[in-house]
Design a protein that fits this description.
Protein name: DUF349 domain-containing protein
Helix content: over 70%
Structural class: mainly alpha
Keywords: Coiled coil
Number of strands: 0
Pfam families: DUF349
Shape: elongated
Order of helices and strands: HHHHHHHHHHHHHHHHHHH
Length: 621
């Protein structure tokens, strides 16, 4: 800082141009001083990180660390204790890490697998974490509140600037100076604003004050009295600043000096002949404190640089985690353990040089958060897939339970096999319900297949008996055909008897049907062809067989509909052919065409007669 920081400029003191230029230079210097002072203020919080009370944590036990944290967390100034609490946390974590490693080695020595190892936090660790996270919450709350307050202060000072601008641009009144003083006092009472807005805000403020003193004349006597008063106040501040060189706690000295600078820049101008000497006195007192701080930082520079190198190495190590992708939970958990170990190593490393601290921290936590962001996305997608699969699984269970008591063995078995295949293709379901869903689905399937197995034992014996009975009927048909006393009535009765007999073993179905057909064909050959219509007889036999079916009515109606459609199609064809004969009557080949169409018409009419006969037979059933 090179010149006195003032909130008012004294350009109205003399009327000459030289004096006005001197006042302008003083104002520029004042802005520079303001900016430097604000920078000192912004560094105040960082200074706290390097001047905590010295406590030998390495000699404390876990219980003592918990007690120490509890005591510190209940003290008032949490920002002052922030660094110390971090060191307590690091020391406590070393105990936990060591206990976990010992427990793991013991678990492995007893035959346990590392992946199955579960290290649960002790009551002591839970108590420690309770105090620690409560402390972090207080720190975050204070910092957030401070930022919010700075935004509020920015709005208040912006409003004051608008009010000051109205005074500067308004007409001269006897109340102008009083209003300006009120604005100055209010401006001074408002706390700090965001550092990004501070310089421009002060530039606007000082520029308006500059214009005010340029454009308005002030009663010289009043101004002189005001300057003398300001001289007394600033002299007192110089004495306080000079006393700070003897304050042992450098952090407290820096904080107090920042407060004095803030007060100094708001007091206003002093008599011109006292201005430079006063400012040099205040600056010398400030430099004495700043030199102590510089000396401290110089002594810590090598340590901070080494810390930065260690942290940058961890950042580079962390970069491989940024694009990590995996399809298995186990892989994500393994990587999580690795990244948490890196975090522990990071927290054990001390501070880095101020100029690179923000950038280093930003790089580390950006990579750290990206990994867990990707992990959260994975589990979110996995939860959605599992929820969808659970709904599908419940749907499959419902279908299986609907089928489990069905006695249509073959069709039901096919449906259940398909459901089982669908189940295998489901994919992951929620862990908490996975076993219960599978047990429920398996129980439904097992119920059906157990029922079918028991039913098959009974049916096999019945089917074997039916096979013997059908073989006996076939033998009777063959015997009757061999005697030469064949009749439609007898064959109809024997065929009916055969059809009434139930199922036979699957392996014998084709063979017994072939034997039956051969026997019936042999018998039919023995019937008198003149008094026997083979087609009508077979049609009747087929209808008799249909009548034994549960859906007989539906089947007979369908067959009747089919016959009527055939008759209708044939009648339409006959009409079409007759029309064609009339069309070709004048053709040279008319006779030849007529013969061809006559044959077609005759065959169609014969077929219609047969179909109508079948309809009449069908009506009997």
């Amino acid at each position: 800082m090179e010149s006195e920081d003032v909130s008012e400029v004294e350009k109205e003191e003399e009327a000459t141009e030289v004096q006005e230029q001197a006042e302008a230079k003083e104002e520029v210097a004042a802005v520079a001083a303001t900016d430097d002072s604000d920078e000192e203020e912004n560094s105040e919080e960082e200074e706290e990180d390097h001047h905590e009370e010295e406590i030998d944590l390495s000699s404390l036990t876990k219980t003592q660390l918990v007690k120490l944290l509890k005591e510190k967390a209940q003290q008032g100034n949490v920002l002052k204790l922030d660094k110390l609490v971090h060191e307590i946390k690091a020391a406590f974590d070393e105990f936990i890490h060591k206990e976990r490693d010992e427990a793991l080695e013991k678990f492995k020595a007893e035959g346990g697998a590392e992946d199955d190892f579960d290290f649960r936090p002790s009551d002591e660790e839970k108590e420690f974490n309770t105090y620690y996270y409560e402390f972090r919450k207080q720190v975050n709350t204070i910092r957030k509140d401070a930022e919010k307050q700075k935004e509020t202060n920015l709005a208040a000072k912006t409003e004051l600037l608008n009010k000051l601008r109205e005074h500067v641009d308004g007409e001269e009144t006897t109340l102008s100076m009083a209003s300006i003083k009120a604005i100055q006092e209010e401006w001074k009472s408002i706390g700090p604003v965001p550092s990004s807005q501070n310089r421009s805000l002060w530039a606007s403020y000082n520029a308006l004050m500059d214009r005010f003193y340029d454009n308005r004349s002030i009663y010289f006597e009043l101004k002189e009295l005001d300057r003398k008063k300001n001289l007394e106040s600033k002299t007192e501040l110089c004495e306080k600043a000079e006393a700070l060189k003897d304050v042992k706690d450098l952090k407290d000295a820096i904080k107090a000096l920042n407060e004095l600078h803030e007060e100094f820049k708001h007091i206003g101008p002093v008599p011109r002949d006292e201005q430079e000497a006063l400012w040099q006195r205040f600056k010398a007192a400030s430099d004495a404190v700043y030199d102590r701080r510089k000396e401290y930082y110089e002594g810590q520079k090598e340590v901070f640089q080494k810390n930065q190198e260690e942290k940058e190495a961890l950042i580079k190590k962390l970069e491989s985690f940024s694009d990590f992708k995996a399809e298995r939970i186990k892989d994500w958990n393994t990587k999580t353990k690795e990244i948490l170990e890196i975090q522990k190593a990071w927290e054990k490393i001390g501070p880095v040089p101020k100029e690179s601290g923000k950038e280093v921290n930003k790089a580390f936590w950006a990579a750290f958060k990206l990994f867990f962001h990707n992990k959260n996305l994975f589990f979110k997608e996995l939860d959605e897939i599992r929820a969808t699969n659970q709904a599908k699984a419940e749907e499959l269970i419902t279908k299986a339970e609907e089928l489990m008591n069905n006695t249509d063995w073959q069709n039901t078995a096919n449906q259940l096999v398909k459901l089982q295949q669908d189940w295998k293709r489901l994919g992951p379901t929620p862990e908490k319900s996975r076993d219960a869903l599978y047990k429920k689905f398996k129980a439904a399937c097992d119920t059906f297949f157990d029922n079918r197995r028991n039913a098959n034992k009974q049916n096999n014996a019945e089917f074997e008996s039916n096979l013997v009975k059908k073989q006996e009927v076939i033998k009777k048909i063959e015997t009757s055909a061999g005697k030469g006393e064949a009749s439609e009535e007898e064959l109809t009765e024997l065929v009916g008897t055969f059809n009434e007999i139930g199922f036979v073993p699957r392996k014998s179905m084709k063979e017994i049907q072939a034997q039956f057909k051969a026997a019936v064909d042999t018998y039919l050959e023995k019937l008198d062809p003149e008094n026997f219509d083979r087609d009508d007889f077979l049609f009747r036999l087929n209808l008799n067989k249909i009548q034994s079916d549960p859906n007989a009515v539906k089947t007979l109606n369908k067959k009747e509909h089919g016959i009527r459609k055939q008759i209708s199609d044939l009648e339409n064809n006959i009409t079409l052919w007759k029309n064609n004969l009339e069309f070709f009557a004048a053709s040279k080949t008319a006779d030849k065409l007529k013969d061809q169409f006559d044959v077609k018409i005759q065959k169609a009419e014969e077929e219609i007669d047969k179909l109508k006969k079948k309809l009449s037979i069908l009506r009997e059933f």
